[in-house]
């Protein structure tokens, strides 16, 4: 079934980023088992749910690194798999994917999204609206989420002039401290969901002269490996979106969560009578323990007199961290990587 961008005959190609690891969900997520291949908030993996979410597109392309190719193909055989030469964050990944999609499809619109987010609701209407805006305006489109709390773990989008279906982006803001996050919410800023849509021409024009420039030149010369060698890891936000002059935002009209750290499970999964959330195959017995998160691959966990902890046991690894400090797991992972133990 052809599902071209509304009001145009341009194919819509969903591009799912599945090359990251998701280190803040250690030890469930490790170098050999990335977050998108976990099933933390349901039976299907995060990658399977993402691919299902964009099944309305003309084509679905999953972008991943060489180490994950076989697992990705086995998990989502209905999608095409594009192998990036190296994992260097979302900037090189999306530059490479956009280039390849432009070669394969006739005048497409690219819809880019992470493989590891939680979305509840009908994603298709908003995605189509954003793709139509990208096709009609040649702007880079980012999808914004209306905040329900002053979150310090997300970036923010400051909207400018309103044009009905979309608003101009006045500025992007990095992850704030608590006081600044409260002011952002009060002023009507959006969370940056990391979901984008654009035409290949618009992306190329915006990416020229940025840190991705050497990669674009190498791709034109047919040297993808050399292009990846020529650039450093960089997010597409920093490399392109924050530098571009023609960027707009479309509100994402669904429930959304990054699912990036263990405390997120408290927002997404039902809790027992003591406020404890259990994920995976953990068996939990607790005495005077409240508001904890327990996740494991078939491990018996006992909790006594503790509150506000994430207790995670996978393979031969155990993590214990206060849920309010869950973002700091990335610091632990950095240490483990230095020791060659991640």
UniProtKB/TrEMBL annotation:
It comes from the Archaea. Keywords: Nucleotidyltransferase, Transferase. Residues 14-271 form the Nucleotidyl transferase domain. GO terms for biological process: GDP-mannose biosynthetic process. This is Mannose-1-phosphate guanylyltransferase. It comes from Haloplanus aerogenes. The keyword Transferase applies. Residues 283-336 form the MannoseP isomerase/GMP-like beta-helix domain.
């Amino acid at each position: 079934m052809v599902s071209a961008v509304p009001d145009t005959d341009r194919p819509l190609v969903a591009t799912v980023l599945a090359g990251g690891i998701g280190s803040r969900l250690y030890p469930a997520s490790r170098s050999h088992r990335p977050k998108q291949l976990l099933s933390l908030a349901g039976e299907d993996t995060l990658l399977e749910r993402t691919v299902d979410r964009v099944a309305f597109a003309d084509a679905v392309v999953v972008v991943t690194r060489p180490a994950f190719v076989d697992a990705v193909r086995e998990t989502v055989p209905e999608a095409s798999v594009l192998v990036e030469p190296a994992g260097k964050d979302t900037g090189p990944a999306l530059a490479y994917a956009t280039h390849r999609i432009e070669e394969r499809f006739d005048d497409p619109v690219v819809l880019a999204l992470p493989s590891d987010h939680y979305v509840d609701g009908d994603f298709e209407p908003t995605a189509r609206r954003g793709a139509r805006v990208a096709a009609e305006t040649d702007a880079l489109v980012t999808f914004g989420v209306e905040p329900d709390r002053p979150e310090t773990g997300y970036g923010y989008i400051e909207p400018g002039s309103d044009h009905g279906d979309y608003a101009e982006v006045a500025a992007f803001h990095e992850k704030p401290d608590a006081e600044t996050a409260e002011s952002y919410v009060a002023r009507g800023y959006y969370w940056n969901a990391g979901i984008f849509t654009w035409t290949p021409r618009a992306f190329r024009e915006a990416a020229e002269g940025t840190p991705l420039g050497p990669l674009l030149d190498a791709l034109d010369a047919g040297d993808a490996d050399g292009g990846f060698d020529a650039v450093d890891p960089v997010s597409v936000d920093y490399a392109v979106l924050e530098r571009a002059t023609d960027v707009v935002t479309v509100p994402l009209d669904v429930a959304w969560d990054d699912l990036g750290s263990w405390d997120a499970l408290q927002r997404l999964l039902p809790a027992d009578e003591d406020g404890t959330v259990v994920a995976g195959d953990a068996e939990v017995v607790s005495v005077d323990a409240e508001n904890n998160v327990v996740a494991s691959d078939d491990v018996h966990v006992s909790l006594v007199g503790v509150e506000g902890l994430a207790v995670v046991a996978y393979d031969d690894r155990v993590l214990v961290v206060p849920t309010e400090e869950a973002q700091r797991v990335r610091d632990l992972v950095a240490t483990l990587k230095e020791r060659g133990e991640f």
